[in-house]
Amino acid sequence: MAADGYSALHEFWLNLRAIPNHVYRAMFRGGPPKTDRTRSSFIFGNVFLHLHSVRTHLWSLRWSTTMGLGIMTTAAFLITLVTGILLMFYYKPYPDVAYQSIKDIHFIVPTGRFMRNIHRWAANVMVVAVILHMARAFYTASYRKPEEFNWFIGWGLLVTTLGLSFTGYLLPWDQLAYWAITIGANIAQSPREITDALGITAWADIGGFQREILLGSDKVGEEALIRFYLLHVMILPLALVMLMAVHFWRIRKDGGLAKPANADELVAEEAKEFYPVFTDVPTKTYHLAAIVKGKTAAVGSGPEHTVPSMPHLFYAELGVLMLTTLICVGLAFVSDAPLKELANPLVPENPAKAPWYFLGLQEIVSFSAFMGGIGIPMLCVIGLGLIPFLDREKEGTGSWFGGPGGWKLVKWSIVVGFAASIGVEAFAIHFGWLREWFPEIPQLFITFINPGTVLTAIYAAYSIWAVRRYNSTRAGALALFTCFLCGFIVLTVIGTYFRGPNWDFFWSPSDWGGH
Amino acid sequence: MTTHPSEKKSRFDPEPMPRRDFLGLAALGSMAAAFALSIFGMLKLPKAAVSASPAKKFNVALPDTLPEGEAFVPPGRNVAVFRDAEGVFAISTVCTHLGCIVKTSSAGFDCPCHGSGFQKDGTVRKGPAPKAATLAESLKKRGVAHDRRGSER
Ligand code: FES
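^ Those are the sequences you sent over. The predicted structure of the assembly is below.
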């Protein structure tokens, strides 16, 4: 029996008409977010937005705090995710067919080329942004307690991002891809350089095992392609998403972004513009907070210098998202993703170059496969991960270069970092290295004493000097990190622009000549 | 389990384990065992018992006029075949550094990727290559490679 004298049929009609309104109400349960209170519950009741804290400190909103690099990385990831899924409709992970399907995407599928270009550029933007984001986190010492764990997660994200880039590089199965996977797999096999020299390969063939797991065969072929495809579209993205979720969540749980101790004073002027908060009495209390130990975002500090994340933080984030999209789409318009000839196992590219972010690696790999491909990168990666545990000083957290004097040290480290890497490279290019001087020299010498290891030793010595000179582990960390960043830049530039056929040094690609 | 009051307990008798504790431990133990076994099983998954790779044996037809000591690269193969007084032998053209394919040159072989160079007999001349190119000496030893004109193996 319908209420209020309406006939049931009439009521049905009214319900039908009210559907849009009711659906809207069901989705936006708190009504449109107009007051601080409704804005807060807007975040609180939304599973996606819940990763954000309800309020954001004004310091964290400053452009110079993060430069939006973390969000930029996330945005680039979202763009690669969407375009990547679109590409999956046409891509076929099997040699020959793979190459043809990329050609189809490039030339036949409507907007296929555009999607592929965006995918490629967004991936590049992601790599750049993730490196810069790490540098930002390092130079503002945002890895200090309690955020050590999050530095760790970020480190995992960096490695996963590079893994995604590398595995994606292989899928077109063109010459570039084929020789990159060959070289990559042989780098995995390079511990043999050591085990062979010691004569223990027969018992402990770590290198051969790694290569076989990677390729699923002793040849680079269909098994390898399918493995890399699976890594690229399933395993690594899943790992990345999970790590991202933890990464963002930890920011909240560690009390927001790292701030200098006097952050409240620094934002006091801006804070005056915002009216008081929580004009309504909250209906929700935080019983659980009572049993959580330690410092959370809201404990021990009033809401004075915070603003609602909605809209202040969200609009900033949206802005960065739009900017990133603009960059990727813009680049995709002007520059096509490359596609070389079909993979040919008989004739390598000359020179066969890795993606640009691995060319620094390739440069030191050209001195020794093991030290360049595994030894030194491992040292760097482990060193990076351990930073928060090696530098446990308290001062300067959240401010650039650890406060006064830091920038001067970093400037000098830049000079040292560039000078040492350019010097060592110039020496090796001009005078050659051990094998050219003593042709009979045992391989172990070349493996452990090569330009790459010499450069690493110089950097290590310099940073130990910095620790003693400033009597501070933070100074040593600043010196070492800066040096390695500079070395990475120099090696990448040399690998990209100054190496030609036979990995010889050329002042310009126009000197390469026919080969 | 009930004990008869007359039964005296020795001080060496262990306390009987309460049944719940026992079941809990058993559950934990079997879970750990299941985990360990399944992880062990999964670790074996990526490595097939037989690896799917093309056959490594093939026939090569040497050109009749191949001069002594001159490298012959059969089309489609990563190998250089030589003839000398003792017979026929072959050298793999896969660089021992990171697996690029070397090119024959006047000095022997040169690798396009990171500049390794090998002599004609496969020993390293320059660059990062850690060891000599593999020389298939078996061709000589097995005697199959004697001058049978055209169908050396
Ligand atoms: S692969 Fe031959 S020199 Fe690197």
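Chain A touches chain B through 49 residues (CB under 8 Å). Chain A has a mean pLDDT of 86.

Shout if you want it in another format.
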